[in-house]
Amino acid sequence: MTGRPLPRCADEELGFGTVITDHMLKIEWNVERGWNHPMILPSGPVGLHPFAHVFHYAVECYEGMKAYVDNNGSVRLFRPEMNMQRFRVSAKRMSLPDFDGEQLLKCIETLVDIDKDWIPKQRGYSMYLRPVIFSTTPWLGLTQCAEAMILVLCCPVGPYFKSGFVPIKLSVDSKYIRAWPGGTGNVKSGGNYGPTVISQAAATANGASQSLFVYDKHEYVTEAGTMNIFFLIRNEQGVKQLITPSLKDGTILPGVTRQSVIELSQQWNECETVEKMIPFAEIKAAFERGDVLEIFGTGTAAVIQPINGIVYEGKEYKPVVPFDDSMLQVRLTNFLIGVQYGDIDHPWSHVVPP
Ligand code: COI
């Protein structure tokens, strides 16, 4: 079970999300019988009825986690209990059945241990874990879920962006709205992601690689492509602040990396850490004063992604200082990577029992 089959490519050639490991976890649910026994199976197709709700009504949600190998060969996860908690919140919002997060984490640990030889060892590479739950209910009527399935898939990955840890550009998209109050922006449902693909073409046309999503006449900043977003600014009073959109209006995904950056920034206390509604005009004014010091995105896939420009109404706005290694975002990244790969002993790093 532990021998690695022929590698499909060298780790350095890994992009994001193309290689699947040997095994997957599958757990089926039925309204009458509840959850069935978890099964670890060879990765492969799952047969579903063509009426399955997930195909027609997008009744699904997912998680993103990563497994790392430390210098002693132990396998580590990063704050996995937060993923399990968010997965349950997302499932509830999507009217999918509840499950025991601790039990699911144990199943994931078993899967990761079986496929651990697939985990790339180099810094910047890891094994992405994709838990997904969806309604397999085989009726065309839009009804409560009667049948569902959880899959957990494993995928050795390199950097999410081909450029790696090199700043990217964003373009403000005022046309397509990613999320709005009362919607599902704060849960990890595929329905929040698929409809944003169209916006990437507009971003590319503006010379950017991702869109910065805003909503409402105030153009409140929400997310950057698939990531949460942070700005290090000096406010109008000259106070240095790390600001990020608040979770209060329900449009923002409560990212695990987002939360970790907030906690680290509060502990390091180099600036104020502020979660609030951010009208884009506030960022534009800060750009115009020369008060935007840093911008970065956070996410499980991307970890921290430097951003060095935002295109808005045909004009590019740039942080006042060029990207360099002394920046807060670089130090945050180094710390997070240190914890994730077990170089820094920290309670956020979870060792998978062999
Ligand atoms: C993640 O960062 O884990 C995500 O789920 C984003 C996805 C588009 C890869």
Automatic annotation (TrEMBL):
Its EC number is 2.6.1.42. Its cofactor is pyridoxal 5'-phosphate. The modification N6-(pyridoxal phosphate)lysine is found at K188. The keyword NAD does not apply. GO terms for molecular function: L-isoleucine-2-oxoglutarate transaminase activity; L-leucine-2-oxoglutarate transaminase activity; L-valine-2-oxoglutarate transaminase activity. One of its GO terms (biological process) is amino acid biosynthetic process. Belongs to the class-IV pyridoxal-phosphate-dependent aminotransferase family. This is Branched-chain-amino-acid aminotransferase. It comes from Ostreococcus lucimarinus (strain CCE9901).
